[in-house]
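[Automated response] Your request has been received and processed.

Submitted sequence:
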Amino acid sequence: MKKATSNATTVAQQRPSVNLMAADIWFQDPEFAGLAVWQMKHDGMGDTLRCGDYALIDTKQTIVAGGGIFAILRDDGSIHIFQLDNVHGIGPTRRVICTYRNPSCPPPFEATVGEDVWIIGQVVRKIERF
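Generated structure:
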């Protein structure tokens, strides 16, 4: 099976390799070509993305600019979905605020892109699991 990966480097340190399943292969739907898929493993995004839902990620969209929901790779190697907002900076010193949308989850935290977190891509669609 083919995997979707992003080779774009927009930060000082190169992002560690991340292999996500290609959404068009996973769902056997050519409409999803070019997107990666990640299945939510918890309810951290509240009603936006629930446990079991599939997040479709555009790995070419790695600039936070006006904020949005993004998949990130944390420095411990885990993948998470957060609401991201810019704090300040561009390029290798960008800082973002990572926020869960579920109030029962841990509070927001600030991170440096390229050191603490790497942006995999922006979540552009979801497929709900009933």
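Summary generated for your ticket: The chain has one domain: 18-127. Residues 1-12 have pLDDT under 50 and may be disordered.
If you did not submit this request, please reply to this message.
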